[in-house]
Prior knowledge:
Elements: H1 3-11, H2 19-29, H3 34-37, H4 40-43, H5 51-58, H6 63-75, E1 79-82, H7 90-93, E2 101-106, E3 114-119, H8 126-142, E4 146-150, H9 156-166, E5 171-174, H10 188-194, E6 199-202, H11 212-224, E7 228-231, H12 239-249, E8 253-256, H13 267-274, E9 279-280, H14 284-291, H15 296-307, H16 313-325, E10 327-329, H17 330-337, H18 341-353, E11 357-360, E12 364-367
Parallel strand pairs: 3-4, 3-7, 4-5, 5-6, 7-8, 8-9
Antiparallel strand pairs: 1-2, 2-6, 10-12, 11-12
Amino acid sequence: MNDQLKHKMALSLIKGLGPKLIRSVVAYLGDVEAVFTEKERVLSKIPGIGTRQASLIANAHPWERVAQEIAFIQKHNIQTTFFLDDDFPARLNNCEDGPVMLYRKGEHILGGQKVLSVVGTRKVTEEGKKNCRDLIRDLAANHPDLAIVSGLAYGVDICAHRAALEFGLPTIAVLAHGLDRIYPALHRSEATELLHRGALLTEFMSETNPDKQNFVKRNRIVAGLSDATVVVESAAKGGALITAHLAQSYNRDVLAFPGRADDEFSRGCNKLIKTNVAALIENAADLEYALGWEVEDQRGEAQQLNFFNEPTGELGVIFNLIRKEKVASVNYLSISTGIPVAKISTLLLQLEFDGLLKSLPGNMYRCL
Length: 368
């Protein structure tokens, strides 16, 4: 049994140790294995960990369950990635409550230049279906490198996955349960089809049921995995609104289709727009404008124009890191490069003036 993988998987089985604390504990100790070998009195001194929590960690014995899960993932060719691994989605590492371990089945490696989440009500109308399909159709024509993320649920979710498959885009289904099942079972054929170009993704081990609380946890991955979240239709309350507000809290763009004032499944979208949580869109062109996404031929021209002006030195280090990570915060750039925050800010401003970067809310930046 791979000891590193064993200890990474075991972290999520310690009661009361959520993603934020796991990241803090690992950072404090400097090693995943040390979480299970360090003395209880040392654990109790870690910020956020008291004596009770330290006792739970020191007396945790999750190894039988971990061995069972490793056998399962090996049998079913499931890939794992830990938040410190090179292949872990960088966008999720910019979310303080992001998952620490992901289980993936499929061909997609969670990279890609652009990632868009598409969510909404489970009781989608015919107009909502049309808006969803038309949006993804037009985006696919201009952005073949785009990946579509949703939750495989009834309604808007499955419309988004089907449209992505129809128009040749990879699509990622984030699940609220383990990879030993598909929920709802009615969407098994789409789940099977998307494996060839996309992926099934979850933070939950096998034998985890699709319980209500798991859907909220799932929604934060849907929001955090993407550059932006589109709400197609939503009632005044629902999971899509939770996802939208999570995306906003992660400093990601939120967009929504408007609807009639008396339409039950437009009330949520209209409220997001009225409260400035979401930008109003009616088509793919609106989304491209809001996000600063150039169409392919325009981007090709921009790349040719910038080819001879590729930044060098510290500017090049910053630019290439953002290009690799897709979106990055000032603090992340400073930690990764060792350049002081004050100097990072000056370099970012110069890159922005040169037309190479776009600043986002919350001191986040992405390449144009």
